[in-house]
Amino acid sequence: MSESEMQAELERPRAENAQLKSKDKGGLTLKVSEKGGLSLYGMGRFPVTLYKEQWLRILASASEIEAFIRENDSKLKTKE
């Protein structure tokens, strides 16, 4: 591997890191992981990665989850 190829290989993760750091703090992004899972970025320090059928199951239950959150609002904490 030549020196220019090594430099290019080092620049790739640096550019990715800079792009991730510059994104809006409130924004969410999606990415297909190496193993074929769907990763959701922007919820915390690490992505939430689940397989397609798991995401679809959560999305199908969205109204139940929202109702549960409303019913238990006084017990639930918010991250500031």
UniProtKB/TrEMBL annotation:
Organism domain of life: Bacteria
Region annotated Disordered, chain positions: 1-25
Comp. bias (Basic and acidic residues): 9-25
Protein name per the record: Uncharacterized protein
Organism of derivation: Edaphobacter modestus
Species lineage: Bacteria, Pseudomonadati, Acidobacteriota, Terriglobia, Terriglobales
